[in-house]
Amino acid sequence: MSNDSATALRASRRPDFGADALVYIEKVRKATKRLRSYETNPEDVRGALQRVREVSGFNVEVPVLSARREVQFVKTGVKRLSGWYMAYLAAQLNAFGATIVRLGETLVSRVEDLERNGDELAARVGAVEARLSRLEPKTAATTAPSTAASTSAKRSIKKGPSDEG
Amino acid sequence: MRVDLYLPGFAPHDAISNHTLQTRRGLREAGYGSHIWAEHIVGNLGREARPYQEDSPLPGEHRLLIYQMSTGSAMAGWLRSRARAGEEILGHYHNITPASYFARWEPHIALAMDNARQELYMLAPHTALSFADSAYNEEELVDCGYERTLVCPLLVDLDEYHRPPDRATLDRLRRQREGAQWLFVGRVAPNKCQHDIVGAFAVYRRVFDPHAHLTLVGGGTSPNYLAAVQRLIGELDLGDSVEILGGVGDAELLAHWSVADVFVCLSEHEGFCVPVLEAMELGVPVVAYGAAAVPETLGGAGVVLDDKDALEVAKAVDRACRPGPARDHLIKAGRERAAIFSLANTSKALLAGIEGYLAG
């Protein structure tokens, strides 16, 4: 189901790999890469903020392409007539979006600071625990006899002589 | 014995709706009673399906309920309650697009996709047997905890594609175009990666054929993604060489197939990909990215790429478009592959699966 004459015509055409074409290919690669979908990790706060940043700008350049020429004509007309109005709204929305992104950045930085502090605290607590565990055997060895004596004394006070008889 | 069919959305020109209609036809021809029940009934299909809320089993009647699983629906919870009441539930899985594709463009759709997948998990213990359009879909079912599964491709009436195309559209297309005709058919959605097709087409046009033309046919599910693709077309200075048509009628679509030199599919997630089957049936060579179920549906009858780099795709399309034995082989292999998916074959396989289940 192909257009045979056109196909034959194409067969005789030589590909163009000139410098301009290579520049254009790079442009295409960069442009299409921007539109890729990606996996999002629910714990990736910076990644989530990046998603907000990507949608925080409001584009007033409404596409006017259409398969039907008359529809494209109408779309272009509406775009020109309403451009000033859309731009006014979009400026406020863009400012709002930028402020939200700024807020997000502040919160993310704060959370990262807290996490860093938490890590430092955990390291310090770990060091203290290690030190304690090193000191405990020595303390136990030096205090063991007196502890045993006091336990025995406590027991005798608690039970009393009559209980044992 | 009745085998009733349930689906969330019943709409014209929809692959799963058509599959359900064909399933009912096959069941009735085999002597089973069968009705279609849906949550959303679109257009003039009210005579073919009824709202599932009106469904209730007749006392003492033995019936099977087959659920067409492809999206989220309140029907899933209702079917679970039917299973708990002792009715036998079967499934046919047509795949659910991973939410990650929509998270960037339409967060609300991503949420709906997540919910749909949760429903898929929820129904696993209540589904006695589930069909899958492809081995790829079957693997997902097994991952979701479905114990008894069977691959049975989508039911597509390929004879429908041999009706006459819309004459006015065909004349217009033949008059207007002189370069290679690229075609892609499928919803404008991030997982279908129309942006990659536009990119590869831009390179093809720059390097191989400045008169080439790309037509993207298919209704939209993501307005934000569609707008981004339209901006990309402008950014790459493609002007009128790319046409985004939205949904078109069957006859008009056939006109586009009639002038297509190549079908380019760079989709990253497909549970089966009916348009690949259409292309093979209609003798249009396929160049596709080898993701999800696409290589399985193609079965070696098309060019499968491991890389979506725009230049690599453009080179592959150039080879597929050049007249000669390679192109002839692609066309012949495609037609042979499509014959395997004939309605007679797939109907028979599905009926055998249902009767195998009934026989225990």
Task: Explain what the structure shows.
The complex is a heterodimer of chains A (165) and B (360). Chain A has one domain (15-134). Chain A has five helices and no strands. Chain A has helices at residues 4-11, 19-34, 45-55, 69-159, 161-164. Chain B is 44% helix and 18% strand. In chain B, helix 8 links the parallel strand 9 and strand 10 (242-246). In chain B, helix 6 (167-176) packs parallel to helix 9 and helix 7 crosses helix 12 (310-321). The interface between A and B is large, with 36 and 57 residues.
Profile the largest sheet of chain A.
none
Q: Please tell me how large the radius of gyration of chain A is.
A: 38 Å
Low-confidence stretches of chain A: 156-165
Domains counted in the coordinates of chain A: how many?
Answer: 1
Share of helix among residues of chain B? Answer: 40-55%
The end-to-end span of chain B amounts to 15 Å
**Strands across the major sheet of chain B, in which order?**
3-2-1-4-5-6-7
Number of strands of chain B: 13
Question: What is the typical, i.e. mean, pLDDT of chain A?
Answer: 78
The overall pLDDT average of chain B reads: 94
Report the count of strand segments of chain A.
Answer: 0
